[in-house]
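sorry to bug you again but im stuck and you know this stuff better than me. theres a chain ive been looking at and ive put its sequence and its fold in token form underneath. id like you to explain what the token line says about the fold, in plain words if possible. anything you notice is useful, everything is just below.
___
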Amino acid sequence: IVSQVGSDLQASDFYVTGLPFLPKEASSIRMHAGHLPVNSEHHGALFFWHFASKYAGDKPRTVIWLNGGPGCSSLIGAWAEIGPFRFQDKTTIVENNGSWHMFTNLLFIDQPAGTGFSYIDTDSFIHELDEMTNHFLNFLDRYINIFPELLQNDIYLAGESFAGQYIPYIARAILTKRSELKLLGLLIGNGWIDPSSTYESYLPFAVANNLVENNSVLYHKIAAQTEICLRRLSNETHVFDGACELILSEIAKNGAMNNHYPNKTTDRCVNIYDVRLDDTWPACGMNWPVDIEYATLYLHREDKSGWTECADSVFYTFRAYHSIPSIKLLPDLLRQIPIVLYSGERDFICNHWGTERMMDAMTWNNRTGFDLGNKTSAPLESWIVDDEPAGLIRTARNLTYILFYNASHMVPYDYARRSSAMLHQFIK
């Protein structure tokens, strides 16, 4: 994988000729990867990795995938979720039978600058969502100059977690400033979209999952903190709020101290990405899943640039104090393109209760929630994949919601084939 930041570059400069440990049957997968500049003043460049579609469809399609954080590499999505490969152990790579590249091109981008293999001067990390969007548009300009075929593709933006902020901002910019790109839809998994709904969901979700006992001392402590949080959010809209972040950490550290986890001690905490699991304090899920450990060993090689799953420097700088949450952008986007919101049933940090609360309160395309008029609502129906109940699905006025049974924050990690079925159903 070659870093390229100069001018007059061609697609061949980014061609990936091979990777260690790849199975022979994967040798035919065409890949391009490298860096493209987005901010010359502060030496900023974003890293991308493109996988060509395995099978030719009726039309060319590209899914642009972003992970969240902020500051978490999109190569997590490439190597542990929707990409062509999975790690079986530290030195064994196998094909992912639920890879999204079976019928779409995949473009993974490490952003904002400073994330994953992307870089920028250490005093120039970005702070706001508009800055992120500008860098992303700069990247797209550079990318299209080298790979103009992207303009002939149907484009879908997809991602998870804090990408629930990135994706609506980028989509709005593409639709208003980049009309030559054929953006046809968005897919957001376990998205951090509406902070208020998410923060408010933590306590009831914790009670429902036996992490906090109803009416206990801990319950009342968290309830009081939730009131403080919601008062702050009612006075001023934030993407993050320190008082609200205390709710999650309190539940993660002190919840389920009795019998939910048989070996729960004070040095362990709830895995905030999968409430069925626990972890060491203060990681609380950052040590999971093991595939990321394998990816880190693979990507962070001494003979290559260093790579980390999530960059603390980006996370603590990108606080978006002056950005409006992306929930404010969704109604106008839904007027123009379809959107899929999907949730893993066992995720805590961006749990489905918060997503459902957000959708029920949101007004789009002249109605609120899943109201169909005439005192009827869109039904919540069983979603079947491979002849098995995979979850629940609901659709109204360009918005589709899918709840994945027994899935975590990283739905495609748990159920690659089911996530692929979701994509296929959306884009066909």
Summary: The mean pLDDT is 93. The chain has twelve helices and 18 strands.
